[in-house]
Amino acid sequence: MTLHQTRAEAFERDHAEKPRVPMSEGLLRAANEARLLSQDAAQLDHTIGFALANSDQMGARELQNADLLRQGLEGLADFLAGLAETIDVEGMCCPSEAAAALRMKDQSRRLGDETTPDTVLEAAPAGEIWG
Predict the structure, then answer these.
(1) DSSP secondary structure, the chain, as one string
(2) What is the pTM of this model?
């Protein structure tokens, strides 16, 4: 028995009684969740805009950051849904195809085939949104 067989057997034992669904269904669930988050971010964007409009502070940067968050979540939802549509019978997918329709070019580049998973985190902006 090889190490791979032992891991596979352990996986089957640990997950045998849990319901299994196609990868595309799992990705669509994640896409729906990201879409809900983007709707929450849109409401937050609206609330910040209202609050800033009724204050003496300019706040353009805060509004832009909230809108970027909303757009990023919306793009993630679109990417996940698109990725689910590209899964073949072997379970392989095409990130570049799913990312091609994204409106934010940096996000499209990070999620598409121009980067590897290791460089996605390095390319993503860091820091607080309203900091």
Answers:
(1) --HHHHHHHHHHHHHTTS----HHHHHHHHHHHHHHHHHHHHHHHHHHHHHHHTSSS--HHHHHHHHHHHHHHHHHHHHHHHHHHT--TTS---HHHHHTT-S-HHHHHHHSTTS-HHHHHHHS--S-S--
(2) 0.64
